[in-house]
Amino acid sequence: MYSYAEKDVHERLKTVRYVCAKYINVDLWEQLEPTGHVWSSVKHDIHYCSTPKIGCTHWKKIMRFIAGDYDKSLKISKPGDIDRQYVHDAKLKHVRRVGMNSAMVRGEMSKGQSFMFTREPYSRLWSAYIDKFLLPDFWRWDAHAVIKKIRPNATHEQKKCANDVTFLEFLQYIVKSSPQNMNEHWQPVYKLCNPCLVAYSIIGKVETFGNDSHLILHTFGLDNLINTTESKFSRDVEEVKMLVKYNFDLKQNIPKGCFDNEDIAKRLWKSFQYNGYIHRLINIPIKKMQSENLAEHPKEVFLKHVMWAMEHKYDHKFDIGNQKRDMMLNIYRSIPKEIIDSIREVYKFDFELFGYDKNILKDV
């Protein structure tokens, strides 16, 4: 059952060792002290180097669950029951969170069971943009930094709201930033979890997330603690419900006049199409939502129609296997070649270490 995933992981680790040896005497490489954080269940001797935008919420839920690190008054029977905001923000009691810059922790990771995940850089950047800029999460901080650095003639309204950063501006901002000072959501993975300093037991990829996740649970002896039989539809529904609640609840943290429920509904719908939850040809029924009082009850009204669209997709067996990739590539077609070339340079070690094709956009 796990032989195919084991073979993939073996080849990844082999590639990592080869590339690390290749650059061992390069000064730049030696100076790149890892900036990521490790979540450890000391009880299980399991260590996870967190890589944002690469399934980190999912794995933080699992780490909290196996360590019993959640409010016992909550009805928690599986990792997915733990709220997203709670996962990231609630105080850790049984899980240890330590910076990867600790040599002691890196030594523990190499001796125990350790893992990390990686992702194709182009896809990761697009996902970060959708989650943090198209949606309102980073309108509170990083979006303002992008406006300040990339849009010198921004209006007062744009500076105040920072809710209209484009994907091109986001990429331009990254190109003008130093890898050492980037936000962890788009900082190169080698900088977060440098696999040349830790002998990881398993390096997973988001592209094979399901198989790799099952292999990790099996290898680390967690099969009996985690239910792995949930359907893809139920997992998608869980993710969508969480995103709807999280993003509409951000209204209280956004400056007055910068957050409109109808606008957020349209952005969420588009993000669900980008992420393959809703077929691209199903348009948002915004007038119907308005008639059902979207303004006063945004989460309930919006979620009702999202569930219909998702069920409609599954009931009619729409083939959207390539929708997510196709929509992403279509966006990249609008990005100037010199920006794409610069992005390749910023993430060159991620491409090489983890076996990704940096020229995948060559014909886009």
Globally, the shape reads globular
What's the mean pLDDT score?
93
Q: Rg, please? A: 21 Å
Tell me the number of helical segments per DSSP (H or I, 4 or more residues long): 18
Characterization of the model:
It is built from 18 helices and five strands. It is an alpha/beta fold and 364 residues long. A five-stranded mixed β-sheet has the order 3-1-2-4-5, with helices on both faces. A hairpin with a 4-residue loop joins β1 (37-41) and β2. The mean pLDDT is 93.
Structure, briefly:
With about 375 residues, this protein is of the alpha/beta class.
Describe the protein's topology:
Blueprint: H1 3-22, H2 27-31, E1 37-41, E2 46-49, H3 56-67, H4 84-89, E3 96-99, H5 103-111, E4 113-118, H6 121-134, H7 142-150, H8 156-161, H9 167-175, H10 189-193, E5 202-205, H11 209-219, H12 232-248, H13 261-274, H14 286-291, H15 298-315, H16 323-332, H17 337-346, H18 348-353
Parallel strand pairs: 2-4, 4-5
Antiparallel strand pairs: 1-2, 1-3
